[in-house]
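Let us practice reading a record.
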Amino acid sequence: MNKVTKSILGILILALVLGLAFYPKIKKTFSKEKTEDAKKDKNGKGGKTSVVVTVVKSTRLDDLISSTGSILANEEVEVRSEIAGRIILLNIKEGDAVKKGTVLFRINDDDLQARLRKLGFNKKLAEDNEARQKVLLQKEAISQREYDIAVNSVNTISADIEDLKAQILKTTVLAPFAGTIGFRYVSLGSYISPATRIATLTNTNPAKIEFSIPAKYATAIRKGSTIEFITESEEKMYRGNVYAIDPKIDPLTRTVQIRALAPNPSGNLVPGAFAKVNLILKTKGDAILIPTEAVVPEAKGSRVFIVKNGKSIPVKVELGNRGEKNVEIISGLSIGDSLITNGIIQVKPDGEVEIKEVLQ
């Protein structure tokens, strides 16, 4: 055996001795690391699953019907003239608010005033004639028929005067209600007729909401029922009350038309706008509503997870009415429970969890 071989053999023997001496300590260290790695692989970082919870609370629950409809004006009219003539006064400014009784325009009535004066003279003459005929009748100088003709002449002229006064009144057009003037279609001096469109007058406070519901709910709706609705222009929730129900069902659509009134002092509800309507049939009172994504379906019912003492606890629940985003819980949950709404896939029954966020 040469010198090199002896050196190699000596090194191997030394390594073997050192390995035997430190083996228990090395084994313990590797076993601990393996256990910790296994825990991390099983439960994630630190052995806990991060979740988002929501505090269960009481919420008002309504039995409602969803529909779509349109916003209507409370009152709207096309301003027109009842008689033909030339406009001599035009008090219409586009976009202005006017009060009830405001003069909108006036038509030239010179010819009517002249005819009225002429009839006034004729009436005076007829009344004088009737007075003379009455004296003659008392003296039996004329017949009753002649006197009756004189009286009829007075009455006829009086009726013509009343008719002419009514025509003169029509030459001045007043605002029938308070509202806002729309676009104007004539100018001062224009010759108009009853067919001429002058302008529009619109009142939007309160606003009307027209919508329809399926015929099967026709007997459930009543005057005064509450509606909640939003428009396409904003997400603000408005409330109103039903004031009219169509007495018949549309045979083509099998729906019932309904109209409701909603306060509109700011004018944000614009006629013609689209409205998404919820008609409240009955208010059930307080209930527990939770997000639908928090419910885990099972073969025999449903369950959710709540957090207690840092662990995820499965709870069987009984479901009620479902909405677009929420579901009613009839039994299984209590007010104040910490419901897991995010991270449900990773949690296990009685597994340790870490609350990342609490939603109210």
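A brief commentary: The CA atoms of residues 118 and 312 lie 101 Å apart.
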